[in-house]
Give the backbone structure.
Amino acid sequence: MHEMALCESLLDSLRDAARAHGFAKVTKVRLVVGPFAGVEVEALRFGFDVVMRGSLAEDARLEILDEPGTAWCFDCNETVGLPDRLSPCPACGGERLRPNGGTDMRIKDLEVM
Amino acid sequence: MVEIERGILAKNDAYAARNRTRLNAGGIVSLNLLAGPGAGKTTLLVETLRALGGRVPAAVIEGDQQTANDAERIRATGTPAVQINTGKGCHLDAHLVGHALDELPLPPGGVLFIENVGNLVCPAAFDLGEDMRVTLLSVTEGEDKPLKYPDIFETADLVLLTKTDLLPYLDVDVDAIERNIARINPVASILHVCAKGPNGLAGWLDWLGEVRRRRLDRLAADSESRAQALRAAAEALP
């Protein structure tokens, strides 16, 4: 359950952005969470509501954007699309893969007042 | 609308970068040890420190939700240790480690072991500023743990299979464990260790020695090129 810690880190970033851009309230947060970012989206939503309570982002909407998963295939020696961590390589059927895309979790943008 | 484009863990990553700079400047080699509870992290550390016998300066940061038991076990070997209790937290973060570093002065060439909170999931996401990640999996934990908990294996430089002395008593397929690790992380080294009995740590101690030597060579080369640049700059003007 490190999603709680992620939300606390997110709140820190929102406060930094509020100082830098001079806004007082956040009404919407858009996050990009890749399939291999190690984040349980439902836990993140739960943590978001709890952590944002009483803050500048209380009642803000949370939108989570997908990002395609890709991996380096050690047999093809190239990057391939990978829908699921345990899927084989769609090109060669090999299983020696290491994710190199969709591993990110980042704040895309905010709607503020 | 305000564009941010910043990692959610940007703050942790900034602290991690600070720790890394500080450790590199001090010539310290650092390892982040990750595993589920009971895989044998502390026992491995205790026996490793005994084997090093003070010939390599070492220090340990212990992460647990509660108790100072592990730091006490480490200190009993004569090695300085700081216990971090994370309370409700399920992982160490770079900020906590930065504070612990303040209490653990190490000379150049020292090795810092960071024993993360026993947890096969959360610690994987948090860079602490370490040089190397070592994930432990005991042979009693089953063949498919790397497939069930890929993140912690995916980021490892080395995977240690621990408690291999129990293999004669278990119906476990070691080749299957290794295949599953390689499937999640084709570039990780895999070594077998057993903290009891003679020579059970030999491969691990060799790996550790090699990593330390390579790391220190690299830091020394960086310092030399910096010294050359400074000398050249000093001579550029009369």
User: Anything to note?
Assistant: Residues 3-112 of chain A form a domain with the hypothetical protein PF0899 fold fold (CATH 3.30.2320.80).
